[in-house]
């Protein structure tokens, strides 16, 4: 990425969003970092006070988007790239649990991301470069995992939405990149109580994502070994459902 860009990143106060924010700040871009952790956003700002703007809000709040366009315009009229990296995970411990858990996860992982993209579109259309939408999904959307009914469904919805948006935005010359990571060592995955095959460090993951973004790939799926394995298991469903997936249940070994 040779031209300096204006980039807006959601979920920038932790995990992959934070790692990508650091990478693009180091590259010299103007970066608007969003998240709900004020201290983490302020720490990103100290990396380059002239080029980093913190924009704190909580995607789980129903009215988070009301003032968001005006708050963005305080910093810029143009966005060249939006990276939708915010996300939450809640596991379903009881198959008959109520809908509140599903609503919480879908609200952040799907509806809030769609709303952020909708707001970003008016800024992206002002770009003098070829604008780009980047969405962080998950390999969990590609094959069912134990207790991931809510998380996997939210990511599957988000990934399908991004793929459809890619088609509808061709006439607007806006590129869409879908990032589907496997297990990455972040504060979110550190809460997991099961083995995570092919776990990558945050730095490794962000390097792969940045390269994929720069190449404007339609899909960035990694790690390759896990992605290919899941693809193969989709063709061998009896092996996945009957043997491997049950071993990933709570307090079991893969």
Q: Would you give an account of this structure?
A:
The chain has 254 residues and is an alpha/beta fold. The protein has a single domain, classed as NAD(P)-binding Rossmann-like Domain (Rossmann fold, 3-Layer(aba) Sandwich). Helices cover 43% and strands 14% of the residues. It is built from 8 helices and 7 strands. It has helices at residues 15-26, 38-47, 68-73, 99-124, 149-168, 202-214, 224-235, 237-247; strands spanning 6-10, 30-35, 52-56, 81-84, 132-136, 175-181, 219-222. It has a 7-stranded parallel beta sheet, sandwiched between helices. Helix 1 (15-26) packs across helix 6 (202-214) and helix 4 packs parallel to helix 5. It is globular, with a radius of gyration of 18 Å. The N and C termini lie far apart (40 Å). 37% of the residues are buried. The mean pLDDT is 89.
Overall residue-averaged pLDDT value: 89
Q: Helix- and strand-based class?
A: alpha/beta
In percent, how helical is the residue content?
Answer: 40-55%
> How far apart lie the N and C ends?
40 Å
Choose one word for the global shape: globular
Low-confidence stretches: none
Count of DSSP E strands? Answer: 7
What value does the Rg take, in angstroms?
18 Å
The succession of helices and strands, N to C, reads EHEHEHEHEHEHEHH
What does the main sheet amount to? 7 strands, parallel
Task: State which percent range the strand residues make up.
Answer: 5-15%
What is the number of helices?
8
The number of domains: 1
Architecture in CATH?
Answer: 3-Layer(aba) Sandwich
